[in-house]
Write a structure and sequence with these properties.
With 331 residues, the chain is α/β, with parallel strands linked by helices. It has two domains: 32-166 and 198-216, Type I PLP-dependent aspartate aminotransferase-like (Major domain) (Aspartate Aminotransferase, domain 2); 221-330, Aspartate Aminotransferase, domain 1 (Alpha-Beta Complex). Helices cover 32% and strands 13% of the residues. The protein contains ten helices and eleven strands. It has helices at 37-48, 65-70, 106-115, 176-184, 190-199, 210-216, 221-239, 267-273, 294-302, 314-330; strands at 11-12, 32-34, 52-56, 73-77, 94-99, 121-125, 138-141, 153-156, 257-260, 276-277, 304-307. The strands form three sheets. Strands 2-8-7-6-5-3-4 form a seven-stranded mixed sheet, with helices on both faces. The chain has a two-stranded parallel ribbon with strand order 1-10. The chain has a two-stranded antiparallel sheet with strand order 9-11. α4 runs antiparallel to α5.
Length: 331
Amino acid sequence: MPAIPPQMDAIGGYFPLEPLGRGAPGFHASGHSLQSGRAAFLALLEATRPARVWLPWYLCDSMAEPPAQTGIEVRRYALNPDFSMAPIELGPGDLLVGVNYFGLLDDASDRLILRYPPSQVVLDNSQAFYARPRACLASIYSPRKFFGVPDGGYLIAPGMRIAEYPQDASSQGRSVHLYKRRQFGAEAGYADFAAAERSLSDQPALRMSAFTQGLMAQIPHDEVQRRRRRNFLFMKQRLDEFNQLEWSLREDTIPLCYPFLPRVSGLRQALWQARIYAACYWPELLDPARPVPPTERLWAANLLALPIDQRYDTNVLEEHVVLPLVSLLSA
């Protein structure tokens, strides 16, 4: 494959610390503010104590931790090539977790609530921060996938009594990578980023830190949403012809990324070598010892979550993502 010329700073990857400025405080103010999306799920399970939890195979291992911590059985379900659910038999004491992948499956979320009892449905909106809560048992959000914050999660569960957890006091120590990214670039803080992610695993549920709450209050949400939609539509226009996946954008949809499934493999490493960090969801699914369905294994191996976030304009994406990628695809 031809080499991609490097740019001044890397494209994609984890965020730098959010700049301070005037924002719109109180997004998801109707919910419970917790340490992480995983902590929000743990708090939900501790409050409801279901008999079983149904999780998709295509999901981060961190979401399997709360059931293990609470001794709740986990069942897995497969997805169709369009990310819709294969039908399952939901028992009366079960919870079904549906994932709004890439922030692009609002229609699928609506269909899930029509197909199954809403009181047994939990929507994992970790990749869909701006998706409105649906009329179901609960919705979970993870702001650090959209912004430069060290942690944080929201649980929207109307009428549910959630325990009064202690407040997280370690948030600032989890922020080293955010400072390093802003000051020195992506590579300088990657080890700290990985350590920060690990520090959120297998923890008891905690409330969101005051530090993260303060950062979240500074985010200009209207501008973030405008830029993400603009950038997604640009990438769709430029790359849809090469993409095995088909995406549409509802008027109220704010995407996480542009999910790109090329017809050739091996592009991820070529992009990483050029400092274009397209996230991999989720490499642990490639473990040959796991009975992961072939479609989910293919996504874990080859799907590229191309950045379209508020850090970039379309000129940057054209020069540093689209043109290098098209060059690789044409080689």
